[in-house]
Amino acid sequence: MRLNLRVWRQKNGGSEGAMATYAVDGISPDMSFLEMLDTLNEDLILRGEDPVAFDHDCREGICGACSLVINGDAHGPERTTTCQLHMRSFRDGDTIDVEPWRASAFPVVKDLVVDRSAFDRVIQAGGYITATTGSAPEAHATPVPKADADSAFEHAECIGCGACVAACPNGSAMLFTSAKINHLNVLPQGSPERETRVLDMVAQMDAEGFGGCTLTGECATACPKGIPLPSIAAMNREWLRARRKVKG
Amino acid sequence: MAVSGLIMLGYLVAHVAGNLKVFFGPEEFNAYGHWLRVMGAPVLHHHWALWIVRIVLLAVVVAHAVSAYQLSRRDLKARPTAYVHRRKRASYATRTMRWGGIILGLFIVWHLLDLTTGTLHPGGFEEGKPYQNVVDTFSTWYGNVVYIVAMLALGLHVRHGFWSAAQTLGVGNARRERLLKLLANTLALVLTAGFVSVPVAVMTGVVS
User: Fold this and answer.
1) Which partner from A155, A222, B120, B175 sits 20 to 30 angstroms from B83, CA to CA?
2) A93-102, A130-139, A142-151: lowest mean pLDDT where?
3) Average pLDDT of A113-117?
């Protein structure tokens, strides 16, 4: 396959960026999107140019390191992570636009790499449990109803990649934060901090400069892990409940 | 946004029901208009109940507009750099919430100047004769156009707004999703169809 790439190039956070056009040849449809970018970077290095910086780690779709807005879609046209997106989703001769996540809470570090530590600070605000640690407890020591276990697991699937923020027209982090809160709030292990968790994490989310939610649903459409949109309503429910309890 | 929106929605349901009385002729419609002024009597003085409704509505409209402004400012600030590759996002109703809201705000001003104060009313505005006033307004082409466009905007606004309010207040969940969407669409359709039926009736001569 021969492709025309238009890639966002930006030297660092302080400099102006722009889209740069590159032609890449010899791309196999079985390559992942990141392998295609590796091919481009090998070319660039041989030509003595600066390779395109992009985030990646496991390349198995489970770590949440990779990002990229491809042709206007977070993680590209398939509902998966960029590392699990294959070039067979494109056609020979296509022009592909590659941009970084866009949000004021995710400043660009270089080219396609953005700083997602705002998510870490939201987690630090309450995305943990204060149970004693040590070796893993016996699985049946704490009974969990099946429906709650399923809901917790569904939300635990969030890998914190930030596609929800990138896809949201308001740069809102409601889906991410709701996944983290719902994951722990339905479990008995998470219940001691049930109220402070939701209040503190939402406050931190707001302090990071993420936008507000207008329920466009773009986040849930882009989420590679399929965190559903009603999770946001569930978080709002938890927040209203916590406000009543803490005040009352 | 959610609470103020739902209060206005409640008012609109009462408003559309009242409007439909126009189909029962001038006596009944004018009598209904009169009743609105003596509502709550003899406990309340004349016009008191009406003024209470007006004050609550004004407060709610202002609250809705202020929170919309704050939310929009925050949202625009959170995405300072737009994507180069743009594509259509979300449904039409969702994308037009901001502009639709502004259109509705301007419409309310015109609507009050037209049929409450009579300042912009075409022809002789007569207090206490709402039936004739309504017929006058919808006998002009611009009266019909402004009204119908605004009511279509209202339908779209309610379609996304009602469902969103349910999410904000934490009422939504996966099982209620379809029910809430159905309710939002039904409300939007009933309100728009109900309101639009009046100018259409005047245009076709059913109400004259």
Assistant:
1) A155
2) A130-139
3) 98
Q: Rounded CA gap, B159 and B98, in Å?
A: 14
Q: Which of A209, A203, A201 is nearest to A182 (CA)?
A: A201
Q: How confident is the model at residue A139 (pLDDT cuts 50, 70, 90)?
A: confident
Positions of chain B with pLDDT lower than 70, given as ranges: none
Are A233 and B171 a contacting pair at CB < 8 A? yes
- Residue A83 and residue A120 share a domain: no
> Given A73, A92, A109, which residue is the final one in a domain?
A109
Is B166 at the interface with chain A, CB within 8 A?
Answer: yes
Per the CB < 8 Å rule, is B87 touching A72? yes
pLDDT at A134: 79
- Decide if A6 and B94 are in contact by the 8 Å CB cutoff: no
Question: For residue range B164-185, what is the model confidence (pLDDT) as tens digits?
Answer: 999 999 998 888 999 999 999 9
Q: Report the number of secondary-structure helices (H) and strands (E) in chain A.
A: 8, 7
B89 touching A (Cβ < 8 Å)? yes
How near does any CA of chain A get to the CA of B190, in Å? 23
Q: Which of A73, A214, A234 sits opposite B75 (nearest CB)?
A: A214
A188-224: pLDDT as tens digits: 989 999 999 999 999 999 999 999 999 999 999 999 9
Q: How many domains does chain B have?
A: 1
**Whether residue A155 is found in the same domain as residue A87:** no
CATH number where B16 lies: 1.20.1300
**Between residues A227 and A134, the one the model is more confident about:** A227
Question: Domain containing A241: what range?
Answer: 116-247
The nearest alpha carbon in chain A to B171 belongs to: A233
* Complex ipTM: 0.91
Put simply, the answer to whether B79 touches A71 (Cβ < 8 Å) is no
CA dist., res. A145 & res. A142, Å (int): 10
CATH of the domain at A213: 1.10.1060.10
Structure tokens at B60: 């709610």
